[in-house]
Each structure stands twice: as C-alpha cells, then as structure tokens.
Design goal:
There is one protein chain. The chain is mainly alpha-helical. The chain is about 75% helix and about 0% strand. It has 1 helix and no strands. The longest helix is centred in the middle third of the chain and has 20 residues.
Length: about 25
C-alpha cells in the first residue's frame, strides 16, 4: 500500500497484526 497518510498505513498494519494475533489465540 501507499499514497495515503502515514497514520492510515500504520492503522492498517496494526489492524492486520491484531487480526493475526486474534486468530492465533482463538
């Protein structure tokens, strides 16, 4: 991804990591 605000990309990365951790823990 790219072209968007840095904080937007940071949010997407954090969200992706959160979803992965949730899947691993569940």
């Amino acid at each position: 991804m790219g072209g968007g605000p840095p904080h937007f990309e940071n949010y997407m990365t954090t969200f992706y990591t959160y979803m992965r951790l949730k899947m691993l823990l569940t």
